[in-house]
Amino acid sequence: MPSTTPPSACQHCGIDHHEHMQRWTSAAGWHQWTQPTQQQVKQRMTVRRKARTTSR
Ligand SMILES: [Zn+2]
């Protein structure tokens, strides 16, 4: 899994909406893209920002 997850990626597996379709994870089983929680979006944006600043 990439270190930076798109903020809008699936709540269960972290795959972006447009490439998700049906996916399997041990935690959620077969599922379709599920909107991430506000907390997940917030956390992903923080990680993303941090990755951008540390990579330069
Ligand atoms: Zn998923």
Quick structural gist:
The chain contains one helix and two strands; from the N terminus they run E-E-H. The protein has 56 residues and is of the alpha+beta class.
What does this protein look like?
- The longest helix has 17 residues, at 38-54.
- The chain has a two-stranded antiparallel ribbon with strand order 1-2.
- It contains one helix and two strands.
- It is 30% helix and 11% strand.
- With 56 residues, the protein is α+β, with helices and mostly antiparallel strands.
- The protein has one domain (1-56).
- Residues 10, 12-13, 15, 20, 23, 31, 33 line the site of zinc ion.
- Zinc ion (ZN) is lined by residues 10, 12-13, 15, 20, 23, 31, 33.
SSE blueprint and pairings:
Layout: E1 23-25, E2 29-31, H1 38-54
Antiparallel strand pairs: 1-2
Proportion of strand residues: 5-15%
* Helical content class: 25-40%
Shape: elongated
Could you give a short account of the major beta sheet? 2 strands, antiparallel
> Span from first to last CA?
22 Å
Q: List the strand order in the largest sheet.
A: 1-2
Radius of gyration: 12 Å
- What's the average pLDDT? 91
Structural class from helices and strands? alpha+beta
Low-confidence stretches: none
Summed up, the helix count is 1
Number of domains: 1
The number of distinct β-strands equals 2
What compounds are bound to the protein? zinc ion
- Along the chain, the helix and strand elements come as EEH
